Amino acid sequence: MKVAFWVDGKPIVQGNHRISPAGYVYEPNGARLDAWRYAILLKARETGAVYYGPVAVSLSFGLPVPKRALTPTGELREDVSEHHAKKPDLDKLVRAVFDALAKSGIIEDDSKICRLITHKVNVTPDNCGVGVVIEGLDRWELKQ
Q1: Which is the CATH superfamily of the domain at 2-143?
Q2: Where in the chain are the domains?
């Protein structure tokens, strides 16, 4: 069984924790990251799927290009690459999605993800988000 969904919004990275001068541990993207993970969690729960075994996950991140890469009508210029070959780092984008998927209950734990296909593409600012496809890899998957 395979489920697929799209989450609108600018993808937020889940970076490394930082330590404040007062000694407190914090996440630099705090509230924005929480909102992003919550949006993913809601879309995942809407599918009604639950996987108990190994899964394959495919993630397609649509990241905004700068305004100079757009035509006057708001489309991508022809000379702009399809590939988003700059920050944010792909692994930090993936980390936020994996945590949201595990928290949503669609997968037991992100350690169950055995196969990953992912990429970043340039999109116009109003088309940002992430496409998620999850597929069970053996007979232990369950759809509720």
Answers
A1: Holliday junction resolvase RusA (3.30.1330.70)
A2: 2-143
Q: Is the pTM of this model over 0.85?
A: yes
**pLDDT tens-digit profile of 47-71?**
999 998 899 999 999 999 988 888 8
| CA atoms of 86 and 115, how far apart (whole Å) | 24
Report which residue type is found at 28.
Answer: P
